[in-house]
Amino acid sequence: RYSYTAKSTIFRQYQFAANSLEGLTAAQQATARNARIGLIGADREFYATTRQGLISALASASYKISPDSLAYATYARGGRAGGPNPVANLPTTAATTVRPEELDDFEIGLKTDFFDHRVLANIAAFIMVDRNYITNITDTSGARPITYLSNAKRAVSRGFELDLRAKLIEGLTTYGSVTYDHTYYDSFENAPCRFELAFSSSCSLTGRPISLTPRWALAAGGEYAHDIGRVLDPIERSVIAYFGADFSYQTKFFSVPDDSIYSVIDAYGLLNLHAGLRFADESVDLSGWVHNLTNKHYFTTVSPNFSAGGVIGTPADPIMAGFTVKAKF
């Protein structure tokens, strides 16, 4: 598949001062102008046009090792378009356009089942190379920070996934999965400087982790369902009672692209429970649920606040309980 994208933009910014600087000394006028520029930016105008083509493809091969085991290998190529930098008051040192991303993904895996299809096991190893990875950069040289888009020369994601699903006894279904994902900037010089290094003129993120990607993620859970027969005589349908639990865990990660130590979200795990009654034909389903049963306190995002000189974060949901009714007509 071939995709072609054409984008154009025009940016104009001018200052209109309500108060004249007449009557001030030359030095005072210069200070006032610099203050205005720091707050709203200097007068600037630029045009930007991009015409970008992208080829995407997928190739896959598989081999049945045994009646219950299938090995496979895939290669995928794709990406996403860049274009003009969609940010007002773009710093003069920033590029007015962003190059398109180009991704190559390789994966090998094995799909198997055991004990008369009661246990399914899938394992896969992968590596993805992303050239011209599009990320955010925050410029702090002015009176207020400006965040805009930029390209890291190369980013890499590599790891493995293991997924297990089992039905060992009648009515009980369980699952478990583990993912290891080592994501990092393979080449990113002239990168944004972390908040704690804000006075540095240039920084490198080569070899550093990519934000919002925990190294390890685990999940496990199950549900037990049992047919308890007819509950109400007027209703000639069987009722199924069920109960289930789910647990997820992930290791710590950075929540901003520059890997500031003030953006670390620590590892956490969440436990959810649910139980309910439903008709065997699933026409009516009544369930109660509890999310974050242990009332784990954690943040979904944390980042330094350049203006206030502090750290701000978005707290996640506390323990929550409720019920859900579903009906099919």
* Total domain units: 1
Per the principal axes of the C-alpha atoms, what is the gross shape? elongated
Report the order of strands and helices: EHEEEEEEEEEEEEEEEEEE
Number of helices: 1
Helix content: under 10%
β-strand percent reads over 45%
Number of strands: 19
Instruction: Report the CATH architecture.
Output: Beta Barrel
- Major sheet details: 11 strands, antiparallel
Kindly report the name of the CATH homologous superfamily. Answer: TonB-dependent receptor, beta-barrel domain
* Strand numbers in spatial order across the main sheet: 3-4-7-8-9-10-11-12-15-16-19
How far apart, in Å, are the first and last alpha carbons?
42 Å
Question: Which ranges are low-confidence, i.e. pLDDT below 50, for 5 or more consecutive residues?
Answer: none
Structural class: mainly beta
Average pLDDT over all residues: 89
CATH topology annotation: Maltoporin, Chain A
- Rg from Cα: 27 Å
Q: For this structure, what is the CATH class?
A: Mainly Beta
